[in-house]
Amino acid sequence: MSVEQVPEHVDRLRWFKSSYSGSGGGNCVEVAAGLDAVYVRDSKVAGDGPMLRVGRDEWATFVELTAG
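The structure corresponding to this sequence follows.
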């Protein structure tokens, strides 16, 4: 699996908060889909924190393995 940390800010991505993230400020994950990758970040440090870049094929496999 190729996962890399993305140090720079990625413009023009539309971020979605995980439905498992509660409103109490606990574990909050956001995901954005780019053309060739999916980006994941901690919503508590969204603008200033690190992001992970995951290939779309790897993301699809992850979702398939973790769903249901």
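The beta strands are 3-6, 16-17, 29-33, 37-42, 51-55.
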